[in-house]
From TrEMBL:
PROSITE patterns referenced in this protein's UniProt entry, alphabetically: RAB, RAS
Organism: Myripristis murdjan (pinecone soldierfish)
UniProt-listed CDD domains: Rab32_Rab38 (cd04107)
Membrane topology listed for this record: Lipid-anchor
Family to which this protein belongs: Belongs to the small GTPase superfamily. Rab family.
GO MF annotations, alphabetized: GTP binding; GTPase activity
Name under which the protein is recorded: Ras-related protein Rab
InterPro entries registered for this protein in UniProt: P-loop_NTPase (IPR027417), Rab29/Rab38/Rab32 (IPR030697), Small_GTP-bd (IPR005225), Small_GTPase (IPR001806)
Keyword Endoplasmic reticulum carried by entry: no
UniProt cross-references to Gene3D superfamilies, sorted A to Z: P-loop containing nucleotide triphosphate hydrolases
One protein family per Pfam: Ras
GO biological processes: endosome to lysosome transport; phagosome-lysosome fusion
Keywords for this protein: GTP-binding, Lipoprotein, Membrane, Nucleotide-binding, Prenylation
Subcellular location: Endomembrane system; Membrane
């Protein structure tokens, strides 16, 4: 028969780095506004055909509106299988915050195996000329803080969006539920 797997993916980072537009770009408009009033986050879904008989449903959790705290309730992180930590490459303060976001996540949630939830670091707005964070420092930071990898993205120019999400939702074949 056909089976369907559910993966919860978090999208975190400071305000105005492009998280919400990133999610909209990726899911092309599927959006559930109702969830926001319940948990205080935006919640979107995208279904992917994994193989002939398997579908993966991605639930993307965007913390829109909660970014001032750099500390989320455990329930928000619970059960996540992957995470996007995003900053604005023209804003070094949003880059420095990524360490706190990663630490907040790691201190509150793990995979069922006990391992850290795999995180990708995204340097967004790479279409802009006035960068204030160098590729070299991002690389170093990425290693030092346990990110799986990092990529430059431009939500505006639709660059590396699908590629980045492929990293996050492809940690291995999903386990059969
Ligand atoms: C840079 O990001 C911080 C949050 O990390 C924000 O408070 C600040 O307004 C941003 N600066 C600019 C110029 O966008
Ligand atoms: C995607 O990200 C990689 C790693 O940062 C970068 O080398 C590449 O240029 C990016 N691709 C685009 C189209 O921006």
């Amino acid at each position: 028969g056909h089976c369907s797997h559910l993966l919860k993916i978090l999208v975190i980072g400071d305000q105005n780095v492009g998280k919400t537009t990133f999610v909209h770009r990726y899911v092309s408009g599927q959006f559930n506004r109702d969830y926001r009033s319940t948990v205080g986050v935006d919640f979107s879904m995208k279904a992917l055909q994994w193989s002939d008989t398997e579908t993966v449903r991605l639930h993307l959790w965007d913390i829109a509106g909660q970014e001032r705290f750099i500390s989320m309730a455990r329930i928000y992180y619970k059960g996540a299988s992957g995470c996007v930590v995003m900053f604005d490459v023209t804003n070094s303060s949003s880059f420095l915050s990524c360490r706190h976001w990663k630490q907040d996540l790691d201190s509150k949630a793990t995979l069922p195996s006990g391992g850290a939830i795999p995180c990708i670091l995204l340097a967004n707005k790479c279409d802009l000329a006035d960068r204030s964070v160098s590729a070299e420092s991002i690389s170093r930071f990425c290693k030092a803080n346990g990110f799986v990898t990092w990529m430059e993205t431009s939500v505006k120019d639709n660059k590396n969006i699908t590629e980045a999400m492929r990293f996050v939702n492809n940690p291995g074949p999903p386990s059969v539920v």
